[in-house]
Amino acid sequence: METLMAYAIGVLFGCAVYMMLRRSIVKLVIGLIILSNAANLLIFAVSGMTRGAPPLIPEGMQLPEGAIADPLPQALVLTAIVIAFGVLAFSVVLIHRAFEVVETDDLDQMKDTDT
């Protein structure tokens, strides 16, 4: 399972880099979205893909019984999802405003304008 996830994460990173190198600003933002999803999957894959019980320690014990789920990667990915959504919302508004002013989504043509 980990090998399949490694290949999937590699493909997502490759697709994200390819999309971010395109001339269209919309494709750049799509690449950023894919990149953030690949990073989230990477955090999950590195932390271990084992299912376990909630990380609760019974009263009177020093260590939990059996396998437990690690809550730290889940908290990191949840935070990353919220931040990625904020960046996506900002970039969509920025793209919309840039398109209204320049009337193109080509990054090379956006550099040449003096507005």
Tally of extended strands? 0
- What's the total helix number? 4
- Highest-level CATH class: Mainly Alpha
Helix content: 55-70%
What is the terminal-to-terminal distance? 52 Å
State the CATH architecture.
Answer: Orthogonal Bundle
Give the count of structural domains: 1
Beta-strand share of residues: under 5%
Which structural class matches the secondary elements? mainly alpha
What is the approximate shape? elongated
Mean pLDDT reading? 87
What's the SSE pattern?
HHHH
Could you tell me the CATH topology label: Helix Hairpins
Our Rg estimate from Cα atoms comes to 20 Å
Features:
single chain; 115 residues; mainly alpha; Helix Hairpins; 4 helices; elongated
Q: Gist?
A:
By secondary structure, the protein is an all-alpha fold. It has one domain: Orthogonal Bundle (Helix Hairpins), CATH 1.10.287.
Question: How is the secondary structure organized here?
Answer:
Layout: H1 2-20, H2 25-47, H3 71-102, H4 107-112
Helix pairs in contact: 1-2, 2-3
Report on this structure.
The mean pLDDT is 87. This protein has helices at residues 2-20, 25-47, 71-102, 107-112. The protein is elongated and about 70 Å long. Helix content is 70%, strand content 0%. With 115 residues, it is mostly helical. It has one domain: Helix Hairpins, CATH 1.10.287. The protein starts with a helix and ends with a helix. The chain has four helices and no strands. Helix 2 (25-47) packs antiparallel against helix 3 (71-102).
